[in-house]
Amino acid sequence: MALDGPSLGKMLDDVAVGKIQLPDFQRPWKWDDDRIRALLATVTLDYPLGVAMTLETGGEAQFKARPLHGTEVGPGVAPEQLLLDGQQRLTSLYQALKSGRPVETTGARNKPLRRWYYIDIAKAVDEAADRDEAILSVPEDRIVRGSFGRGSSWDLTSRENECENGLFPLNLLFDPEQTGKWQRVYVNGGDDRWDLWSEFQARVIDTVKGFKVPLIRLPKETRKEAVCSVFERVNTGGVVLNVFELLTATYAGDAQFAERNGGEDFSLIDDWRAIKSKLGSDYPVFGTLDKDTGQETGLSSLDFLQSIALVRTYERKQNFLVEHPGATNAPAVSCKRRDLLHLPLADYTRIAPKTEEALSWVGRFLASQHVFRERDLPYGSQVVPLAAIGVILGNAVKEPGVQEKLARWYWCGVLGELYGGVTDTRFVRDVEQVVGWVRDGGAEPDTITEANFQEQRLHRLTSRNSAAYKGIYALLIKEGAIDWFFHEEPIGEQTVIGQYVDIRQVFPKAWFERHEVDGASMSSIVNKTPLSYLAQQTMSSNFPSVYLPSFERHTSSPGDWFDDIVSTHLIDPKTLRADDFEAFYRDRTERLLGLVDRAMGKAAVREGTSDGYTG
């Protein structure tokens, strides 16, 4: 890595002919008019610009390149350097000083503008003047209408008019021939202008031509993950380099793929968008993708890549052990950043379709656990190892016994709240241990043995911020809870989505206010159950003894029949009819703990006991 200072003119020349281009993972150029004016003031004063950074091409880190915005570089021009840091500054300077075209920028409220930039000669040579005020932004038609405090309109459409007003067009600064022609017209306007021009030449033109750009040049030997790390730490825009974007540029630059496909580049982003759109359409639990903006919710491109990396490294390890029986130095299963950065396109195109198919199975699996919507998914991160497990086990995941094991592992992860922190290590352990447990009869995975659920935790589950809160909501639906308004059949996917089923309070806030009872238990999951919006409207703020008869009339059900519907929510209806919150809360706590026991395949820790393990 070298730090030196080429001249600004040399760098802009290299930009113009395509010797310096951008790696395709860089975001688009976008600087507003005010920032460009300030940048031009900085350069004309020879103030520090900030360090730029380039990567020499031809090494391991091969990325698809694109010219800087506003240049006229042809598609076949191969760059010598890729600009990692400094895009906004160099693009702005190239457009303002070198392109010969108006700069495409934005003004207030992101309004698109096309501007020429001028410098006021008199203000530029006045030591008492503010240089920022000497840099003028002029509309594309070069007609200035009462701007800059002069109170009159200017016409700068001719060189004579520019000279008359003493406004030098900065896009001529690196063109000696045109600068000379402009100078001759300007100085002919009066004897005093010779001195002004001489001073302007020394203070501004020579200063800009001699301006040095601090530059770090990364050699072509720089590894791909180092490029990613360096980019994140020095990028002046503060934009974190997304591994997906880096791979997109890498795959687009894959010469072997292009050769096999008639010169067509592989588009990772198009491939992912097609996959995400299909999955999101079929399974709402995976979220959505906006095709116009590219913004996504739920399952992310990084999740998808991590699942692929887990499969690839698992295969690599198994192949190594087959070739080297008993070896202790097998490569690790992993899905860290380096594994993603070194994911070959050939392996991606081989594993991605299997992963997409596995995710379709994951969508069906989650539906079988009565998790239908993205907002109800306890842990999005748990989908990553589950998809990898689905790829590795193949059709075996459809076997009833395997489904039961996977469901137990899944609920231990959710109710044990084991996927809430750093998950890379757990991903790896779960993939290897769950596959070994299911396929080879190995020991129970750590996620099952480590998971425990405390009774006190049940009382503290009060919001969707908790995975266990969402988990108990889903388990109640899985248990067969019937909505109190739409009472014909147990709550299912259509009811959840179509009738706005959510977690609703059983005893209303009004009951707690009337009885002056501490509201902590009011918000607990113990006092909540999945019900439709219309069921909540029927309940309103009434006490249970009042709203239950309303449901009986609506459903045309005798009291004991409707009590059976209430019981599907693991609620004793007698406690509701008596408005006995204490009895209701005590009874339902025990019923919900039983629900947790069944899901985890092990006993929850009750108050007064030391552990919740059975056997």
Summarize the structure.
The protein is α+β, with helices and mostly antiparallel strands. The chain is 50% helix and 9% strand.
Descriptive report:
With 615 residues, this protein is of the alpha+beta class. It folds into four domains: 129 residues, no CATH class; 101 residues, no CATH class; 184 residues, no CATH class; 145 residues, no CATH class. It contains 28 helices and 14 strands. Strand 9 and strand 10 form a beta hairpin. Helix 13 packs across helix 15.
Count up the domains. Answer: 4
Give the strand content.
Answer: 5-15%
Query: What order do the strands of the largest sheet run in, or round the barrel if closed?
Result: 1-12-3-5-2-4
**Please, how many helices?**
28
Uncertain stretches of 5 or more adjacent residues: 236-240, 610-615
Query: What global shape is seen?
Result: elongated
Portion of residues within helices? 40-55%
Topology:
Elements: E1 2-4, H1 8-17, E2 20-23, H2 33-44, E3 52-56, E4 65-66, E5 81-85, H3 87-97, E6 103-106, E7 112-120, H4 121-125, H5 131-134, E8 135-139, E9 143-145, E10 153-155, H6 159-164, E11 167-169, H7 176-187, H8 192-209, E12 215-218, H9 224-234, H10 243-252, H11 255-260, H12 268-282, H13 301-323, H14 337-341, H15 345-368, H16 383-393, H17 400-415, H18 424-440, H19 446-450, H20 455-460, H21 467-478, H22 493-498, E13 502-505, H23 509-515, E14 528-531, H24 533-539, H25 544-555, H26 559-567, H27 573-577, H28 581-600
Parallel strand pairs: 2-5, 3-12
Antiparallel strand pairs: 1-12, 2-4, 3-5, 6-7, 7-8, 7-11, 9-10, 13-14
Helix pairs in contact: 13-15, 13-16, 15-16, 16-18
